[in-house]
Amino acid sequence: MDLRQLRYFCAIAEEGNISRAAERLHISQPPLSLQLKLLEEELEVKLIERNTRHLRLTQAGHAFYQRASQILDMIGTTAEEIRNMEHGIHGVLSLGSPAAIGGLFMPDRIKTFSERYPHVRFNWRGGNTYRILELLDAHVIEFGIVRLPVPAGSYDAIPLLTEAWVAVTHKNDEKRIEQKTISLQELAEVPLIMMHRQEGAHSHDMVLDQMRMANLTPHIFCESDQIAAILSLVDRGLGIAILPESTLSLRPPEDFHRMTITDCVLQSSSAIVWRTGKRLSAAARLFLELF
What residues pair up with 194 in beta bridges, in sequence order? Predict the structure, then answer.
């Protein structure tokens, strides 16, 4: 067994497909399949089930992937730290966030960090909370901003923001243009445009639970995990969106009319998180100090 085989196996596990893993590694499929076979023969266990188009890790495969990831991570971090001792902080710092909340917290810190450590480059990935946690678990990024809660015991966190959720309608909504507040009863009487439910993130349920507690049945016109898509539907007068206030930073404030929801408390919290027990690079540790 060698490091090349570990890298190959991790690529296969993360991509779930031999051809995509081969593209990522810039090699052809036959030698990649051969190395997987040699690895299984040496370990005398089956690591991957091959009876479906999407490859699936066996129980042994999951355990081996965790160990292999840790080994590769430790080797990469160790090499980086040795280079940094001689040449200062450099390399690529990989992070992730949803677009809106990331836009509030990341750009100024990246600017400050870049001024202090000009040899560091950034890889900034986007996505909803579920996607950011996937990237963390696959060791694609070192830390990311998410909406809480996240699975207990799996992540260390620095709290960032607790914010209200607001009702948003289009700027030319004549019926509500003078309205500063709106009740749950009023929201139950109009088409609603909602953030899609995400695994491990309960903001979607929070809104619906408040309505059910008030014995109201919401009329959900559309759900989406794309804030830009939700706002585009609001633009066209197709309904009222219920969103975290920070998401409106993606567009000029005059584009929409926002209203406070009066008869309930809707709010969510965000944090910057990283895997518990993960050995962070020197650059990542220094960046987190900015929070």
Answer: 223
CA distance 79 to 281: 10
Is the pLDDT at 126 greater than 80? The verdict is yes
DSSP letter, residue 180 = -
* 3-state secondary structure (DSSP) of residue 23: helix
Neighbouring residues of 192: CB distance < 8 A, sequence distance ≥ 6: 218, 219, 220, 221, 239, 240, 241, 242
Buried b / exposed e along 275-288 (16+ C-beta atoms within 10 A): beebebbbbbebbb
Q: What is the DSSP string of 188-208?
A: HTSEEEEEPPBTTB-HHHHHH
Count Cα atoms within 13 angstroms, Cβ side, for 250: 18
- Measured CA to CA, the distance from residue 32 to residue 62 in angstroms comes to 19
Residue whose structure tokens are 């000029």: 252
Closest CA to 168 of 262, 270, 268, 237: 237
Rounded distance, CA 25 to CA 19, Å?
10
Contacts of 84 (CB under 8 A, 6+ apart): 90, 282
Q: Take residue 42 and report the two structure tokens written for it.
A: 């040496």
The answer to whether residues 239 and 175 touch, using CB atoms and an 8 Å cutoff, is: no
Confidence (pTM): 0.66
**Cβ count within 10 A of residue 219:** 12
Report pLDDT digits (tens) over 73-110.
Answer: 888 777 766 766 555 688 889 999 998 899 999 999 99
As a residue count, the chain comes to: 291
Q: How far apart are CA 160 and CA 129, in angstroms?
A: 14
| 138 residue type, one letter | A
